[in-house]
């Protein structure tokens, strides 16, 4: 212990002797690391697998349905009511849910005269909560997928409307209807929200209120991300019928297929569905089924943030530049003390002792560089989120990430210090002393 | 000093020289590509919009009461809102539409010349509900035919933008009177930038119909005297809530703000890259500075000898500088090559125009300038070495 | 060749002022071989550096080859040094990254000679010191005596009028020292004025003229009287 502190003291004294060049080196290192950390954070969250234990079992089926034969082999991103029904007829998936995002206004029935609160809605089915491991704080999900005036609230919206979380059994007015609350979720956020990537909302906020998918059709609640109609029905009227029967596309659909056998079976099932639809004359476009795994969903829907990809590449280059630069500076610094190193060796210091001295140097610089780089990273993150607001949800750090950053700072300082130090201390002795 | 001697002394310090070169190369590659990207973002966001960005206010809003969401209540509400807005001093024109120019999303549809669907179909053309006053509210310019009048209400009359008309009929002048799948063309207006990511950002189609439902909200467009714009902006939400309390005013923007938002990604990336480039230049300068400083210290003896042998201060200064210049020059050559390589890589990820030669060359000159500035001070310190002191026996 | 009148040099540091030279008067004729001796710290190196224009002085006058040195710009001083003065240092002061050839070439480059002329002069100088075969060596690859001979070759390659040597044999053994001394005498015989600082009484005796300096003051043991006015100045202006 005493030896270690001695080495550390020596390292600090070396810094004191020439503080300016030392801090320039650290500054450059921290700039490079900081910029890199802030980008790596965004990149990490963008490419994060939010459900590592089951994402390989979650699939997004698409069939190339449509009203008209236009030769396209590119299935729509969204499904019609009928498509969902067809794809749900199979028992192969261990869980399945249709869903879409919408928005509305909610208020407490007792506060009729007060202006309502805008809310994010998700119209979905009961398996949504098992598919994505959504935790309940109170109550539970719907008993089946039938239409019912029952909703599930996020924890935050329960607190917003009622000031507490245990509000199962209370009613909330949504539009003109009164809904009974049957469940309240615990804090939950999937990052990125892979189930919504298809709608371009991978980084958006989670819903406030979940309502049954069938009820949404009954109440003429439509998706607010993307809808598509391919016939001449008037979807502003009698949506409960038109929306269900017409070529009106708005839903996405997820299934859980636990084994490769299930996946193969479901693919086969999809083919059969398309086959019988074609026989009935309802699938005019060429068959082009897709079953996309959750981990490929961003690629499949071209939803990667290209700008961030570019910036990630560039910040990596910047880190490399800074590493080269810092090692160049530290080589200079060590060369300046080469004479001293040589002298110490001539006085009998062993290589091992010098190595320890160098390691102490590395530790000190790594610590300082780490602290500085976190500051730089925080600043850079602020700048990035201001300029690219879509990245706002992707900036948090957890303990593991900080630990990895510390490790990277250590490695970087090591790389930057070691070669120069070796050059300086193990160069030919006679040449230095001469 | 002669180039050969410089080269010799560089090759004596291989590692340092290589470190410097790598760093200069990357800096230059990044610098020129950032400028390219910034330039691209700049020219993208400077495309003509056909809009009066600074004197147009757009209000996006939703009724919060389901009973107001559909006709006829909705039509009445919109009329009352427009009348109230017209009374605000400074407001010249007020109109409604289902979607705001420059904002993504809205109602899009296929458009084709009647009976020529296969050959003329254009997908995803923005469809706009428009009343007679929208023309003035958006300060449109008529090119052929006429704008929509009150008589066109609930008829199949449509007006096209010039690009759309040209795409459908070859020449925009031929469009008037023609039949397309959505109705009869009665006029052609000058291009307006509607949806950037539609098939073409200048496509738009207008018809005079009542908005059937407000389920996706709607938009009020105000043409305002420039001097009054901030004041009007502050009043809008209150005025609208006075008309109808069950109104959620989502946002009030000038078209200038929306325009900025449309190109936000590009602008953001360009600014970030520029900031990073500036930082790279700074790092290059720090590096050149401290390299020259250390070097001056290291070479005190050598410089002293040279002074004793008759080198004057200017020559020493020039020697130190020319060493920087030589490395920077090498770095520049490599950097120009690297610029093209990086451009290729970036072009795989995002759309990027080819790199004109002047750009990396100009960036090299900039880099050289920065390096010179950074080297100057330590170089001039180096010239101050006392030759008597530096040549003293140890 | 060299005339200095009432020259003084004071080193000022934060703590003390050192009067390194006080009221020195000295005249050295063209072709002289003078030895400068004195105890350590007496101001020998200081005087030599001032003569070589490496150091400035506080008061007095200095005429080199009839030309006043005081008040010259850095560029003019550098040119003077380059053309008229050759230096030899105790610690050789060769540039260690440069080959022997490059080291000797350096002052010739400053002089602006073309490559051919440089080559010719370098070869002459190397021949004089007997190191033709080593021209591509680095200084580190030579012995101390050889290095000092290279330094001499560098000093004389430009055919200076005066050679200033500060303890040129201080780092050498006696055999090497003798070789170097012989070289300096040979150079002197070819007409170059030599002024040499030495601690060795033998070497001092060999010199035609012996100048002693004690505590910054001169004790000239020769009969020369300094001219009150240099020749050039009476003729000029
Ligand atoms: N740069 C300097 N700053 C302050 N004092 C100096 C400086 N150089 C020399 N001196 C002082 O001037 C005096 C003369 O020094 P100088 O080097 O001329 O002595 P010297 O006769 O050459 O001695 P030696 O025989 O040991 O080489 C000494 O007292 C020395 O301390
Ligand atoms: Mg001395």
UniProtKB/TrEMBL annotation, chain A:
This is ABC transporter permease. One of its GO terms (cellular component) is plasma membrane. Residues 23-268 form the MacB-like periplasmic core domain. Residues 312-425 form the ABC3 transporter permease C-terminal domain. GO terms for molecular function: transmembrane transporter activity. It is found in: Cell membrane. Keywords: Cell membrane, Membrane, Transmembrane, Transmembrane helix. It is a multi-pass membrane protein. PANTHER family: ABC-TYPE MACROLIDE FAMILY EXPORT SYSTEM PERMEASE COMPONENT 2 (PTHR30572:SF18), MEMBRANE COMPONENT OF TRANSPORTER-RELATED (PTHR30572). The chain crosses the membrane at residues 21-46, 310-331, 358-381, 401-422. It holds the Pfam family MacB_PCD. It comes from the Bacteria.
UniProtKB/TrEMBL annotation, chain B:
Keywords: Cell membrane, Membrane, Transmembrane, Transmembrane helix. Coiled coil: none annotated. It comes from the Bacteria. Residues 275-387 form the ABC3 transporter permease C-terminal domain. Its main location: membrane. GO terms for cellular component: plasma membrane. Belongs to the ABC-4 integral membrane protein family. PANTHER family: ABC TRANSPORTER PERMEASE YTRF (PTHR30572:SF4), MEMBRANE COMPONENT OF TRANSPORTER-RELATED (PTHR30572). This is Peptide ABC transporter permease. It comes from Aliidiomarina shirensis. The lineage of its organism: Bacteria, Pseudomonadati, Pseudomonadota, Gammaproteobacteria, Alteromonadales.
TrEMBL record, chain C:
It holds the Pfam family ABC_tran. GO terms for molecular function: ATP binding; ATP hydrolysis activity; transmembrane transporter activity. InterPro entries: AAA+_ATPase (IPR003593), ABC_transporter-like_ATP-bd (IPR003439), ABC_transporter-like_CS (IPR017871), ABC_transpr_LolD-like (IPR015854), MacB-like_ATP-bd (IPR017911), P-loop_NTPase (IPR027417). Keywords: ATP-binding, Nucleotide-binding, Transport. One of its GO terms (cellular component) is transmembrane transporter complex. It comes from the Bacteria. Residues 2-235 form the ABC transporter domain. Belongs to the ABC transporter superfamily. Macrolide exporter (TC 3.A.1.122) family. This is ABC transporter ATP-binding protein. It comes from Aliidiomarina shirensis.
